[in-house]
Amino acid sequence: MGQPDGALPQVVYPDTEILSRRRWRHSQVLADHFWSRFIREYLPGLQTRQKWQASPPELLEKAVVLMVDPQLPRALWPIGHVTRVHRSNDGCIRSADVNIKGHVYTRPVARLVMLPALPSGEDDESPTPNLPD
Q1: What are the residue boundaries of the DUF5641 domain, all occurrences included (predicted)?
Q2: Contact at 8 Å (CB) between 93 and 87?
Q3: 14-18, 52-56, 94-98: which has the highest mean pLDDT?
Q4: C-alpha distances in angstroms, 16 versus 20, 22, 92, 93?
């Protein structure tokens, strides 16, 4: 996210491999640009804030969601799937149980960002990817 990742070992190139070092740096810059634009432009667009203008799509069970955690950067928000929704007396969904890596969390709908569904083609022979547990 704009800074070197300390978890990855830094590669030291000999002076004869200047071209390889330049390509590696360029690939790192491209990856940094991608992630910064993804976090700045795409993620905020998934959570609509148009109050009282239109009803947002209803949160369904088995929907894949991103759980908002103000203590973490957006890139580290956990992803899980909804196991149960809780309706209020007026019939609106106010909270949901989210399963993330075997742990179930109950969170308000305002703190959940529903991710777009993966396209599923009837004629597509490729297996569907595994969703997070």
Answers
A1: 22-115
A2: yes
A3: 94-98
A4: 9, 12, 65, 62
